[in-house]
Design a protein that fits this description.
28% strand, Metal Transport, Frataxin, Chain A, 2 helices
Length: 61
């Protein structure tokens, strides 16, 4: 999956960007205060996207 498509999915579920690291983004779900990192790769594996959604407690794609 393309990173930009996945970031749109996170924004759709109210996840916000906290800060940008050198190799990753840090997102937080303000509803439950859970946070995780998203790599800066152009392509993210579907399994990784599912795990990130699970960490943030949002529906997976």
């Amino acid at each position: 999956m393309k990173r930009t498509e996945f970031l749109k999915h996170l924004a759709l579920h109210n996840c916000t960007l906290v800060r940008e690291g050198a190799n990753h983004f840090i997102f937080i779900n303000p509803i439950n205060k859970k946070q995780t990192t998203v790599g800066r790769h152009q392509e993210l594996s579907n399994l990784l996207c599912k795990k990130i959604c699970k960490q943030l407690d949002i529906p997976s794609i």
